[in-house]
Structures
1.
Amino acid sequence: MKLRSTETFWPLKNAMNTSYPSINADIKTEILIIGGGITGALMAYKLITQGKKIVLVDRRDVCNGSTAASTALLQYEIDVSLHELIKLRGEQCAVESYRNGKKAIFDLRNIIDTVESECGFEFKKSIYFTSYKKDIPFLKNEFKTRKQHDFDVTWLNKYELEKMGLNAIAAIESKTAAVMDPFKLASDLLYYCYQNGMQIFDRTNVTSVQNQKGKCIAHTENRCTITADHVIHCSGYESTETVQEKIVDLKSTYALASETLPELPAILKNAVIWDTSSPYYYYRATSDNRIIMGGGDEEFKDAKKRDKLLPKKEAALIRQFRRRFPNMNFKLDYSWAGTFGETKDGLPYFGKPNPKKNEHYVLGFGGNGITFSVIGMNSIVDSLNNKKNPDLEYYRFGR
């Protein structure tokens, strides 16, 4: 599956400072992680700190799938609003999912400090706005629900938003969000794990996994085998190739990065911004004063069709930016398209699709993929040990 198009911003900004070999012999390990993006890197970090013997493989160069296309808005807010999620999954699951997301942002910061990654992590506020009068009742309902469950939120009116530089009529301001460079963090995590004994093989495509006598035997494209006690699939949207259950609707999404600006408006310095449109648009700044924005999702995943639309989407996204920030000039520097996915409730999938096999999945779909991956680290440790964990029930397969 082709997950993204053109050269995205993060790999060009960072360039790989470490390369890893492809596999060329049969090996044995305690745990095999399939997928070398941010999810696989976080899972590897969790397990390497517990002294596990790990092999990690990726069919591409590590970090060059969806991680390279991520815009890395770190929010506790889920693509499905809290009041709607309560109707879908019940109050306990919905509220705990929002709280889990909030905790994950702080957990991620602790991980970044431990591995000393210079990934540009910054705490921000989150502003969820509307430009349509018809959406105000929806937004007020969401504000009321979050207040009832002790989330620290503030209502912003049109005048307050205009003072900040945003052309909108109402918004919810949340106190906890963050931004970072996902490619840099994933690279640093993998290198940290590599230095602490993990084997990494990129350009190593696992074509099948067989389960024999309690062992998982992964077969690679070049006819090597990796025998493991457990396999953890951190393959993101490509998991649709190995999971039989229909768990996600794949779409195409688009993103832009501006030239570096001499000065950012206060709202973009201090907050990540997204709206009530469906599909929604979002905006964030980088540490070098660029603006990243995205949206314009399409209901298909065809790579050729997606890439052909990129010039048209560039123009549409820039027009959308100028409506929201009429006093700013967005000069395009980078643009890219990628695969995006939504689950029926906006929540991830963790655990075993088949309880009889030692194959575990960490699948954080949607706009919260990175925070979901942080939550999934602890859940999968319990899955490996056959321990109960509420997240393994909330985010189980077959729900």
2.
Amino acid sequence: MRSSRRHPLLVPVLLCAVAVLAARPTDAADPGGDSDSGLSAQVARLYEDAALATQQYEAGRREAEEQRTRARELEVLLDRQRQEIGGLHEDLGRIARAQYRDGGGMPATAQIILADSPDELMRGQHAFSRSKLAVDNAIDKSRRAEARLAADEEKARTAWEELEERNAELAAMKTDIERKLEEARRRLQDRADTLVAAGACRGAVRLDQPETHFTQPWVAPLETYALSAPYGSGGKRWARRHTGQDFAVPIGTPVRAVGAGRVVRVSCGGPFGVEVVLEHAGGYYTQYAHLAAVAVDQGERVGVGQWIGQSGTSGNSTGPHLHFEVRVTPESGSAVDPAAWLAARDVGIG
């Protein structure tokens, strides 16, 4: 059972979220969905939709937990109301028994005949009026309490049903978006594998860049991630020690330029698969490898935090991730520890 008290702003926000997500164009409605740029844009848009759906679903889940707590509190209050009603019923029984013992139920004609004096008659009539008023008040109070209890129980039931229905809609929307995103990721990676097999890129796929206002000159290459293989680690995947820092992220995650610079390489073949190399001030270069798509062309200048591609698992890769390197030349074999390099520029990735 759910309390009738709700957050005044959360309900419209959740309903608006359902409307906004439902209004998004479907795969079939996207005329550019089969092109490289259309597919990349679709994945980026679905990431935003999935994030919004998750946010609103979690908000609904938290609201449900709060409502469960309030429902338990309300049940205590309703139990008190039920006890009060039971007490009112007992009062009515006591009043009725007292009336019977005191002659309260005796007809007025009999009371006149049996009265020893006018004063006794008046006292009897006055006692009868008080007793009748007490009974009427008790009955009225009992009826009001029962009506209030029924209304509270109905409001609690209706509010809880509305919350469950709303959360079910959000959960279904979230599941549908995640299904579409997974399918779009698969198609995006298939395109990347085709490019790597051909050993040639088709040019940049332009993405709608988010509005960013970075105040620092350097940022991490991804907004959210989990660290995997670090710089210098060994393993079966590399002939030598690992030359970069791996970030485990799903296919299609937007990859950012860690700082302002110029694109000196866009490649779609070899062990790194689809890769981008940037040149930065100070003689350093950064590499972003195993991508599923690139959003820049060679020779282009980029700003800090600008999306330059989307993560993937192209080339010699065992799973979706971004391989990030910092070098002193554009070529492999000149890498330095990227975590330490970023830390020296006030960017922590741990």
